[in-house]
Design goal:
This protein has 149 residues and is of the alpha+beta class. It has a domain of 91 residues. It is built from three helices and five strands, in the order ααβββαββ. Strand 1 and strand 2 form a beta hairpin. The protein is elongated. The C terminus is likely disordered.
Length: 149
């Protein structure tokens, strides 16, 4: 009889725990696919939509050898493309250039290091056969004769 009471108390305890964990309403789990698709459709500040922003990254390492002297140039470029509408978009190519090794003049090596705006352009296509392109480019210019080439 004593053993039956212990089993009965244990059964009542287990049943009460089961009811304590029961929830009347089922929580809706977020659907990851819908979160990604709908998450990109938000507008920030009234005009910025992340779904229209595209980026590409490029890294290059080069070595130049001229007349027994050499120089290494590393370049990281971030290309950003944003589409405002079907007929208006913007592109920017920004590069970080560094020369870790050079047997040329130190001033020449320091002159290469820096951040360059390779291109910023605004493209507007009012008609299918008409394109208006406004562009700014910054290309590093070096006076090779000044640095002893």
């Amino acid at each position: 009889m004593r053993h039956l009471v212990k089993v009965l108390v244990l059964a009542i305890f287990m049943v009460s725990l089961g009811f304590a964990q029961f929830k009347e309403q089922i929580e809706s789990k977020p659907d990851i696919y819908q979160s990604i698709i709908q998450g990109g459709q938000r507008n920030y500040l009234g005009f910025f939509n992340p779904a229209n922003l595209f980026m590409r990254h490029t890294f290059s390492v080069s070595y130049i050898s001229i007349g027994g002297k050499g120089m290494m140039i590393n370049s990281y470029t971030n290309s950003i493309f944003y589409r405002f509408s079907d007929n208006l978009n913007m592109r920017a190519d920004i590069s970080l250039v560094n020369s870790p090794f050079s047997s040329f003049e130190k001033g020449f090596q320091r002159g290469i290091n820096g951040i360059y705006i390779n291109r910023i352009e605004l493209n507007y296509r009012p008609f299918n056969n008409m394109l208006i392109n406004v562009q700014y480019r910054q290309v590093p210019f070096y006076d090779f004769y000044y640095y002893g080439w």
